[in-house]
Specification:
Helix content: 25-40%
Largest sheet: 8 strands, mixed
Strand content: 25-35%
Number of helices: 13
Radius of gyration: 22 Å
Structural class: alpha+beta
Length: about 475
């Protein structure tokens, strides 16, 4: 075995890759494991914008890449839902009983690394019952789910401890090293088998198994790899929408009792599915960069009271399933986001809800008079109706009007709508029960493969992968 030869290579140090490495070591300390990440190690992940307020277009983006992926710079919410309804489709692959066991195991690992032991949203109080009743009256479904909130700054500390633990367990980690290609050979029987990877400086690393957990940021790249090598995939739902920001007083009942409301609505005009996502009580709206220029919107919320704001933000995502001949969901979502960037100088666009309803553009003058102040300071006032397709725009408006029955005041003129929010996980790679593709020993997991849609299930997917590779499945 050479220095560049391993038993397992893991591409991507997001939660899926991290917990694959951890679980391999937990079950078989003798395997040689290499974790390759295109971004920085956790201690080098610094976003200059958080101090200066100005994005300097770091390449790669420190918000979306680096050890722990988007996890350490996000709100750090762990969804505790035993039925697998929240955050992905992992339960469909491993079964409900196994899903629940791995959920509790993974959650305990996070607590062991310093996550707050408090779980929100599990008590059926009179307040929660009132929210559920209001949701039903608005023809929405409130999905029961506990939430463990790590917080943006605390998640960074937690993942720092995990990185140190992997170092202690002798996991080789290679940062600032994008994988550019796979080495795939055809066997005498005609079957294709992965043999290793090539990184950006031309070095080659070989392994018996290659695990790809590149997250949403790398989903477009992985889609290209699938086309190149004939890796089987199918079109999943496309999630496109906006981020809503309002006064925290309007959302206080949900913020204080559930922390995050998982609400699903089928709109009256088109019967499209719209859902709330990534709820950030008293948080901040944030910009994410994909590639060198594409700016999309996201949200954060800190744990420390000193960093909290007077606003709450959350996403509204419209889920659309397309049929043949449509084959490019990631490109479709990117195209819409690029339209928004075209009108805003590669920035996130913001519009007052009152202006959106009146069919007019939000200007700097109108935004300056708005009661709710935007927490994303460099968002550009504009008109989202020039960006979003008509059907999605109608879905968003109808969802906001429906939510106003649960949170009176949300549909007021001063509510802010940011765009575009796109989730790049809509190309679903076909895998077997071992998360193996049609290329022998090439495994995929997490959001980038379209199997999960959130921090907890991506982490759980890594635990599953680590056990599979060590024969403990």
């Amino acid at each position: 075995m050479t220095d560049n030869s391993y038993d397992v290579i893991i591409v991507g140090a997001g939660p899926g890759g991290i917990f694959t490495a951890y679980e391999i070591r937990e079950n078989n300390p003798d395997l040689r494991v290499l974790l390759i990440e295109k971004g920085h190690s956790i201690e080098k992940r610094k976003c200059p914008k958080r101090k200066t307020g100005i994005c300097v277009n770091c390449q790669p983006c420190n918000i979306t890449t680096g050890f722990s992926g988007g996890g350490s710079f996000s709100d750090g919410k762990l969804s505790i839902n035993e039925d697998g309804e929240i955050g992905g489709d992992l339960a469909q692959y491993i079964g409900t009983e196994k899903f629940r066991k791995i959920l509790h195991y993974t959650d305990a690992l996070y607590v062991g690394f310093g996550a707050d032991p408090t779980i929100y949203g599990t008590e059926n109080t009179p307040t929660v019952e009132a929210i559920r009743r209001s949701a039903a009256q608005a023809h929405m479904k409130l999905i029961d789910s506990g939430v463990r909130h790590m917080g943006t700054e605390k998640a960074y500390d937690i993942y720092s401890r995990i990185q140190k633990e992997l170092e202690k367990r002798k996991i080789d980690m290679l940062f600032d090293s994008p994988v550019t290609d796979f080495i795939i050979e055809e066997q005498p029987d005609g079957e294709k088998k992965v043999k290793g990877v090539v990184i950006t400086d031309g070095r080659v690393f070989t392994a018996e198994h290659v695990v790809v957990g590149i997250g949403r940021e790398g989903s477009e790249w992985l889609n290209g790899i699938c086309r190149k090598y004939g890796i089987h995939s199918k079109v999943g739902p496309v999630d496109i929408g906006c981020r809503i920001e309002t006064d925290a007083a309007i959302t206080a009942q949900i913020d204080n009792s559930l922390y995050e409301a998982k609400l699903v609505y089928y709109t009256p005009t088109f019967e499209d599915k719209v859902r709330t996502f990534c709820w950030n009580p008293r948080g901040e709206v944030a910009e994410e960069k994909y590639g060198e220029t594409l700016a999309t919107v996201n949200g954060h919320s800190y744990k420390d009271e000193a960093y909290k704001t007077g606003n709450t933000n959350f996403a509204l995502l419209v889920s659309k399933n397309f049929t043949q001949p449509f084959k490019t969901p990631i490109e479709y979502g990117r195209y819409i986001a690029e339209m928004g960037n075209m009108l805003s100088g590669n920035k996130v666009m913001v519009q007052r809800y009152g202006d959106l309803k009146r069919g007019r553009r939000t200007t700097m003058e109108r935004l300056a008079k708005n009661i709710i102040r935007p927490t994303l300071k460099d968002a550009v006032p504009g008109d989202l109706s020039l960006v979003l397709p008509y059907r999605i725009m109608v879905d968003i408006i109808e969802m906001i009007e429906g939510l106003d029955k649960i949170m009176p005041g949300l549909s007021g003129d001063n509510t802010l709508v940011y765009g575009v929010e796109v989730k790049f996980y809509s190309n679903r790679i076909v895998v077997d029960k071992h998360f193996q593709t049609n290329i022998h020993n090439l495994h995929v997991l997490g959001d980038g493969a379209g199997l999960t849609r959130g921090l907890m299930q991506a982490s759980m997917n890594g635990v599953c992968m680590g056990r599979i590779l060590t024969g403990n499945w």
